[in-house]
């Protein structure tokens, strides 16, 4: 029997050694120090077998943009169990305790990035956003169907970048669901770090903004470059890795993509974790030049308090449905509920009607996957994961859940 309890700051190094063991990692001291500082600011729980720490889980203190709102949302990270204690209920005990703590703190949702997609569905997490990797062949000029914004582009010093792009990013975050807050420390340690943690050959971050000095910017691109490798058996041209691109308009986005695709001594632009509805995929004139090379589940969301989560978000169209929700981890979420929602708000109450069946029956995992607007109830019904007892109920709920743009984040944690 293991004991689940808070992990004191004095045990953070032990927690890190466990994580490095589980994830087969051996980071340098600089990265270890960074991880230590990160965990010092997190909520931490561990599984102790006697004096030994055999399981660990931490949670960032985030807020997450959801349709029409911004909600407290712990972001789970460093989830690990010692190889000697797998399949003994350690992860279940840790997750149960973290869900209880999240509910007690009044956070209606939680989120994580899954190292293995098969793990977290059984704890009620649903894959709520999807990312795409986009590659541009930049050996020739980027062909576009729209005219780029021709206002001036300027390169920012990384030291001044946060003051300029930070507020722009926060405004953009509010306009697209699924995006966690970024502290100044997170900006400095990850997005604007001098050296990339995963690839030491990449340059320091470069930041280009559109807009004249002294004027509000209309967009920015944050990228790193890698020199060409002419010593390889097959020459590898220089590469541009776009870490983030935000723009007020498609024309601004076109100008920024055109800029990074025209950098000298490079032949490829790659951008990991872009939204599936990225305007680039439509205004690129040659889709052989601009290709989606990968697509993957990104942010996983858990509805800890279904009523609070559903009544906090905005709704695109009126809907009234009775939901039969299953939640084996948090029984307070389970039961029959009548959802009445629309542009004026929502109510979600226990349903005591005499009808034999609800309109829709689903697990809390499926409800979480659809919560941000990135997954359609109808698709899950076609997959046999949602039972539609009233024809048209899935389509009606989809119309109400719809958002102008797909939920998306590239903030991996």
TrEMBL record:
Entries under PROSITE patterns matching the protein: GNAT
Domain N-acetyltransferase: 2-147
NCBIfam families, alphabetized: PRK01346.1-4 (NF002367)
Subunit structure and binding partners: Homohexamer; trimer of dimers.
Location of the active site: 120 (proton donor), 413 (proton acceptor)
UniProt cross-references to CDD domains, sorted A to Z: NAT_SF
Domain of life, source organism: Bacteria
Keyword NAD appears in the UniProt entry: no
UniProt KW keywords: Acyltransferase, Transferase
Official protein name in the record: Acetyltransferase
Statement: the UniProt record of this protein carries the keyword Acyltransferase: yes
Species of provenance: Streptomyces avidinii
UniProt cross-references to InterPro entries, sorted A to Z: Acetyltransf_17, Acetyltransferase_Eis, Acyl_CoA_acyltransferase, Eis_dom, GNAT_dom, NAcTrfase_Eis, SCP2_sterol-bd_dom_sf
Binding positions for acetyl-CoA per the UniProt entry: 79-81, 87-92, 115-116
Family: Belongs to the acetyltransferase Eis family.
